[in-house]
Structure formats: C-alpha cells, structure tokens
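Re: Re: token formats

Sure, here are both.
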Amino acid sequence: MRPQFSIVFFTTLAGMAQGLLFSLAILDFPVQIFTQSFLSTFAFPTALVLLGLGLIASFFHLGRPERAWRAAMMWRTSWLSREVIVLPVLIAVTVLGLLYSLTNEIPSWLWIAIVITTILLWICTAKIYQCIRFIQEWSHPSTLMNFTLLGITSGWMLLGVLVGLSDGAKEFPLNSVMSGISFILLFVAFNLKLWIWRRNRSLRPKSNLASATGIKGSNIRQTSMGLMGGSFNTREFFHHQTEHAISNIRKIVLLCAYIFPMILVAYSISSPSSVIFILALAIHFIGLIAERWMFFAEANHPQNLYYQRVS
C-alpha cells in the first residue's frame, strides 16, 4: 500500500498521547502520585497538544475536509466512523481532566473513563486495518497488539521525560524503575515486531496471476500493466520504493524504534538522566514514524497481482 504521511503522523502522535494518558491513569488511580501542578501544567496539556496535532494531520487525508463530520454517520458498521466518534470523546475527557487538575484532585471515575477511551481508540484505529481480510499483513490480532504496545511504550517514555523535567511526582521520580519498565516495554515491542515480520515473510497470495487476469495457463508472464500513464490503482496500492529503500527503512525501524532506545534506557537504569531519556524518546519517535510507514508499505494489496509492472 502507499503510505499516507497524514495517517502516519496521526497514528503515532495520537498513540503517544493515548499512552501518556493511559500511563497517568494506571499510576495515579490507586494512589495520587502526581501533583496537581504537574498534571495541569505538563501532562494534560502535552496530551492535548499531541491529540490536536494528530487530529489536524488526519484532515490532510480527506478529499473534502469540510465534510469530515459525515465520517461518523456509519458508526454501526464502520470502524473508521467509530474512531471519528471516540477521538473527540477522548479529547473531551482529557480537557475535563485538565479542568479538574486546576481546581481539585482527579476523581477515580475520570481516570477510569480515560483508560476506557484510550483503549477504545486503539481498538478502533487498529480495527480499521485489521478488518480488511484480503490484506493478510493487516488481518491479524498482531495489528491491534502492535498499535497498543507501541502507544503505551512511547507514552510511558514521554511520561518519564515530563516527570524528569518537572519533578512533578510525589513518590515516583525519574529513576531506575521507570527506565527499567521502559526497557521491558521496548523489548516486548521489539520481539513482537520481529515476529510480525517473520509472519509477513511467510505469507503467500491466495490468488495468482492466472486468477487475477482471468487467463488460464500455468506459464503466464506479465510484461506490461496495460496503462501508459498509470491510474488510481497503480498510485494508491503500491509504495513505489525499491527493495533497497525498503531494506534501509527496515533498518531504521530496528535501530531507532527499538535498539538505540533500549541501549539508552538501559544505561539510565544505573545512571538516571533526563537528557538520556529525552534522547531515547526523540530517537524512538523517529523510529515510530518509520515503523508506521513500513506498516502501510508492507501491506500487499491483491490487485498488485494484476498491475505488476509498468513495462
């Protein structure tokens, strides 16, 4: 598939915001760990900025942005429509959390609402792609697992950076515990990605060139797609990158999204440092962009069996 950078940025930014809110809720729900000034000045504003930037990025994917509201009309059958509904709900709940943090302690029911809406948004976003059965790379529970795990990982690391910069935790400062949990999350996400790539390499098309073209025979060779200038199909359902470029992007994913951040947070376990954590998060985010680009590029649409070559 052809990756759309608007969707790449939306899913990574919104996923990080969800991970930040989810981590805040999990830590602060049993016992109030974070100060109100930290929540009102750093945590909730950062989450709102990320959600807002992701929402703005998603509009660039629309042909008619002024009709975006219509996307919610098919909520009974469309995961995209459900995502369009859940995202504003999450933003509203986050705004409510910000207002509470300015005046009073965050109530337990609000933390529960934040956890539920973040999980629902991960489900809706992942299901948009997972429900497409004819794209085998997406049609698997690992799609939801990958979206959720990377969101939690990036959000947790962002929380570590904010706590380190603001010293806003009563009993949970940036220390070896937070670095250790970051390392575990990165390690699990890394192994999940390796498993996904191994699975994708083993996939085989359920159709072939004969069934795609309707031509009977066992020795069919296609030398032209039959179109001189291309079409919507040839533009939108293939990434148009060489194997060498794909290989290099895959290396960027491995190094930036997982390996380099793991090395940095492992170092910060014994020597806690906000600078190291910020660097790890920055490199991780670059890797997230590449990872999400690869997620779309690796999806092999069955129509490419027919439109194989330009000449």
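Second one below.
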Amino acid sequence: MAVDRNMQEEAIDWSVRTSDPAFADWDAFTQWLEASPDHAEAYDAVMAAVADAAEGLRAVPEAVNDGAQERATAAARRRWFAPAIAACLVGFLALGVWQFQTPGGTYRTAPGEMRTIRLDDGSQVALAGDSRIEIVGERSARLEAGRALFTVVHDSDNPFVVEVADRTLLDAGTIFDVNLSLASVDVAVSEGLVIYDPAEQRVRVEPGEALRFSKSSDDYVMSQVPVEQVGEWTSGRLTFRGAPLEKVAVDLRRASGIDYVVARNSASHQVSGSIMVPALRESPAELGPLLGVRVSREGGSWVLTAP
C-alpha cells in the first residue's frame, strides 16, 4: 500500500476522534474504513505509531468509589488523553516518519517525509523523501526514484537483490545506502558487502567504500566514505564532499521538503559541508554560510547561487 499524505491526515483525524471516550460517530468511521481497503491499513499504522499514548489512554483507571471528586478526576484525565494523542500524532506527521510492515507493494514518500518499511524476514528499508520503491517479495526490491537505506538480514542461501537504474546490487547481509539522481546512482556501504552488477562486472563494495555508476553507460568510480556518514540522513544530517550544487539541491529538497533550486550557471559548482536538516525548516537561508553559497528567495523557491 502507498499511503499518501491526505490519507495519513484522515487517519490521524479518525485516530484522535476514536480515542476520545465521548466519540459516538461509529457509522461515519465505518463508512470511511469501507471506502478503501487502504484506509484500515493507514489507520492501523497511525495507531501503531502512537501505541504508547494509546496504551496510556486505555490504562486510565475507572473511578472505583462513589466520591464525586474521584469521578471528576478520572473524567478529566480521560479528556486530557485525547488532545495528548492528537499532539503526538501531529508530531509524527510533521516529522514524516512512518513505519509499515509488508510483504510487497509500491511505496512513495513526499518531499520532507521519511518512511521505514519492515520486511517479514527482519530486514528493513528506510525511504527518504520524494522517493519511490517497489518491494518485490521478501528478498528483492526495485528503487524507482529517490533514496533508500537498506538494513538486510543475512541469508547466504537467499541474498537480497536491489534493482536500480537497470542494474543489480547483490547484498550479503549489509547496511548500505542507494541514492538515485538524474544521471548516476551512488551506493555506499557501512557493513557487510554489496556486489554491483554481479552478472558481468562483479564489483565488490565493502564498508567505507562508495560506488557511483552512470545510468547511461557501464562507467563507474570508487571512492572512500566514513562509515558513520552512510545513512546519516535518517537522523536528519546530510554531508556533502565536493558535491555539485545541483545534486545538493536535489538531496536537500528530498530531505527537507523545502524547494531549493539552483541558479543558472551554478549547477556544477562544487561544495562541501555538513547540514542538519531540521534547522533548515526554521530558516532555509541558513544554508548559505554553511555551504559558502548565496541563498535568495524567489516566489516559493530558495535559489542557490555560486559565489
């Protein structure tokens, strides 16, 4: 199931309302659930994301004696839990962090959103913003757009396979990052081993190594990367090392949801630096001094210009 943001918001709304002890509109809730099979899964995912808060609501004790003060206190505590759950749910939506367990299907994220997909074998895929992936059974995936961090459970008899840009990555119990851009694909490994193009070139990518291959030819290049930087975007940080400004803008849009674009004749300008994405949501122009570029606002976009 590919849960879109509107469906998430609807699921959040119903989760908050049905968590209120005074809720009575069960007919309308049932109609919403029956309108699409995806609604129930979205609702369940939201409730799972705030399981602790929901458990707290269920655990509020009934008033056990006849004292008016005790009954009033219990009722007040119940009324408090519904908005508390609402705040928790809204926080999850703002962070864009959602977790689903699935045997297959296509998953999409909006810019600035991140989703974790848990597979039946214990492997998991963290999907960056503005990305799309198809899970093809338990041990195979196809990254169609964007970026994903794979944490794969080792199975020597059944290695995990990732298809990306008409190429194959064969995994042997690994944590690795795959970043798909317009002209190339970057693969970086922090644990284990990935084999690029196992049928022909059979290139080994080991921990601390990164491979970039062209989408239009058989060319590839190898480089070194600190293992702690592999997948760091899942914790809100992006590090660039001599990266073209055009690629920087794409990665920033994906991670933050902010519409960064590159000025004409600045696309190939290379920059280096480390960025905490949550800070940019408060002040997009703060990117300028961090990367040594000019940042200006034009309409709803933030334009990056080489100095």
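The chain has three domains: 5-95, 98-229, 236-305. The CA atoms of residues 8 and 233 lie 23 Å apart.
- S.
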